[in-house]
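Q: Hi! First time asking for a complex rather than a single chain. Here are the components, and I think there are two in total. Is that enough to go on?
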Amino acid sequence: MDCNIIKDKLLDYIDGNLSREEATDIEDHLIHCTKCSEEYDELITTIEYIRSKSNRINTSKELSISTKNFTKKTARTFTRTGLIAVVLSLMLVATVFASEIFDFIKWWKRHSEKQTSAWEELIENGVGQKLDISVTDKNIRVTAEGVIADDLNTIILLKIEDLEGNVRFVPARDTDNHAPLTVAGNIKKPYEEISFPLSANYSPLYVEDENTVKLMIYTYPMDKNKGEIEIYLDELMSFINESEESIVKVSGNWNMTIPAKKLESKIYLVDEEIDLKGNELTIERITIAPTATRIHYKLQVYNEENRRFIDDVTFLIKDGRKTYARSELSRGGAMEYRSFGAVRREFDIQSLYLKEPKDIDLIVNTCRYTSRGRKKYSIDWNNLPQVIEYGNSKITVEDIKYNEDSTEIIIREDDSKDRQYISSNIYLKIKDVVKEIHDGHEYTYRDEYLFYGNPIEYEIRNSKGKVKDGENTSWTDDMHVFAFRQKITLSIEDFRRRGLSVDDFKEYLIPDELHIEGQEYIEFPNIRRNIKLRQP
Amino acid sequence: MTTINIENKRLVNRIKKGQLEFLLQWINQNKDKLYKIAWSYLYNHADIEDVLQDTLIKVYENIHTLKKPNYFETWFISILINECRTRLRKMKREVLKESIEHDGYHLDQYSFFQELNSIDDIYKEVIVLKYISGYSQEEISSILDIPIGTVKSRIYRGLRELRELVKEV
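A: Yes, that's all I need. Here is the structure of the assembled complex.
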C-alpha cells in the first residue's frame, strides 16, 4: 500500500475507526515500512504527551457559576430600591398598616396625581379609549374605565368600589403561585413558553372616596391592531389595615372582556455615540408612542481601563423649559444583563406623542456603576470589631449577633470624608450540596447562595446632596442610597424560602468568610445631545 | 429514540422553561471537558469561570435557535469556544501575563499551555477537542462547522507541529 494512503488513514487507525481488514492492512504496512512506523510512533507519543499533560490541568477548582447571576443584578437593585419601596413604587406595596398611613396617604396622593394626569392628558386628546364596563359581585363593583394600547404597553384603568362598606380594595397578594389579577386575549406573550393568563403588574391610585381605589394595570403590547383583552380578577383584599390580622379578603368573580385598539407609534433610527468615560453608549433607536418615549440603546458594560461595570444608565429629555423623566405609564423596557461586552437595553421616558417633535435634547442623567474586584476575608468572628481593607477603603466588621433562628452581622462602611462610593457589595456565601433523583438517576450538584448586606443606616442623596425627608420628596432617578452601615442576615426562614436542601440549617448560621465584590458608584454625566428625528 | 436523545430533549425543554438548575447540573457533569477547553484559551480560573457563566447565559438566551436537541452538546461547545475567542480578543496581553505570574508554581502546566498556544489556533482547537476533551471527528466537524476532511487534516497538521515542539523540549 502507498505510504500516502497509509498516512491518510493513520489517525483513523489510532482512533479505531477502521474496519478489521483496513486495520490489518495498516499493521502489515507498519511492520515493513520504517518511515511510516516512525510516523506512527511519533503521533502516538505526541497524543500521549497531550493526554498526560492535559490530565494534570486542575479542573477540580470550584466553579462559581450560577443561574442566580441572571437575577443577581436585578435582585440587588430590587433590595436597594425595595428598601425605600414606599417612595419608589406602589406596585411593591400590597397593604399599608395604620402606623404608616399618615405619610403614606400624602405620598400616595402625589404619586397617583402624576399617573392620573399622564393618563388623562392622553384620553382627553383622544388617544386611547374610554370605557365603562362593569361587573359586580359580593357587593364590590369593578369598572374598566379605559385602555391605552400601543407598541410598548397595554395600560388599563380599573375602578374598584366597595358598594356596602368603606373599604379600599385591591387585588389580593400572590399566594401559592396564584396571581389574583391576570390578563389574556390579544396580548403578545413575552416569550413562547409562557401560558395564558399572564399575571399583570398594577399600581393602585388614590381616590378621595374611601370606598374606591383605581388600579392602573400594566401589561404587554397587543398582538394585533384590534382585539379583545380578558381581565381575570378573583380575589380582593383591603389595602389599608390596622394590622396583619385585620386584613379583609373577598373571593368573587370580577372577570371581564374589554375591546382594545393598538395605536401606532413612530420609530426613528438614530446612531448617536456617547463616551461614558471609556464605556461606549450608542443610542440606536427612539420610539415615540402614547405611553412612553422609548430610548433603545447599546451599552458597553465593562471597561478594562477603569475596571468598572456599568449597572444602569438613565435619561431625561429636555424640550424648552420642560423636562421629561421616566414614564409613569410604562412597564419599563427590556434590560439585558451580562458581565462583559455590550448589552441592548430600553429606557422609557414620559410621552412626547402629542408633541410630535422634530428633534429632542437627550440627556444622560445618571450612570450607576460597580468597580471590579472580588476579595475574601477570613474574619475572627469571636474577636470583633475588625477592620478590613478593600481598595482604599477601610471597612469595619463591627458586630455579630447569634439568635435562635438567625445570625446578624453589622458592617460599617468607610467613614472617611472623601469617600466616593455609595455602598459596598458585601456578602456571605453558603455552599449547598444538592442531591436529586430524576428518572431513577441520582444527581449531585453544588449550589451557592449569596447573602448580601442591606443598608440599615443610610442617607438618601441626589445629584445635589442629601435629600430632606418631607412630603414633597418624590423619587427621581438621581436618588441613591448612601450607606453608612449594612447588615447581613442569615436566617433559617430565608434558607427555607430560597430552597436550600439540607434539613439542619443550624450549621449555616455560623458565617464563613466575608466577601466583598465591588463597590457601587453613581455619576451624573449630564451629557446633552440634540437628536434629529427623521423617519426612515 | 435513544436514551441520550430523550435526555437531551428533556434538558433542552427544561432550559427553555427557565429551569436552569438542570443546565448547571449538566455543566457540572461535563465540567472536566468544558473546563479544559476554556483552559486551553484562557489559562486562568477566574476567566474560565466568567466565560462559562457567559456561555450559560448565551445558551439560555439562544436555546430557541437550537433545532435538534441531539446536537445540544456540540452546540454548547461551539458557543463556549466562541465566548473564549471573544474574551481572548478583548483581554490585553499584559493582563494575561500578570495573572499568570500569580500562578507561578504551576510552571509545568503553564509551559504546556504555551506549547498548545504556539501552534495556530485552527490546529490547536481540533487538538484540544480531540485529545483533551475527547470528541470524535464528526462531533468536531459539527462544533466548528467545518467538513470532516478538514477536521482530519487539521488534527494531523496540529499533531505534527506539536511534535516538533515536544522534540525540542
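A: The two ends of chain B are 49 Å apart (CA to CA). Let me know if you'd like any chain examined more closely.
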